[in-house]
């Protein structure tokens, strides 16, 4: 499912216009993004949680040449699936 399919599903299930459903989805996604940028955590019971993990710099290798390269530190979002969702997926 992509963003436009999510908007379509929300509009259909709740009887909203596409424009209104799009506004709602954008507000939710923007709020979630802002929370992660600020270093916060998102937890949706039964679905999962999102956190930002810090990765330190390290020396890696270029797979083509074998040359050592420095990989800079970075932050990446990390999703941990909730127990209810994991169980629901494994039942099917």
UniProtKB/TrEMBL annotation:
CDD domains: IHF_B. Keywords: DNA-binding. InterPro entries: Hist_DNA-bd (IPR000119), IHF-like_DNA-bd_dom_sf (IPR010992). SMART domains: BHL. GO terms for cellular component: cytosol. The keyword DNA-binding applies. One of its GO terms (molecular function) is DNA binding. PANTHER family: DNA-BINDING PROTEIN HU, INTEGRATION HOST FACTOR SUBUNIT BETA. Belongs to the bacterial histone-like protein family. This is Integration host factor, beta subunit. It comes from Syntrophotalea carbinolica (strain DSM 2380 / NBRC 103641 / GraBd1). The lineage of its organism: Bacteria, Pseudomonadati, Thermodesulfobacteriota, Desulfuromonadia, Desulfuromonadales. The gene is ihfB-1.
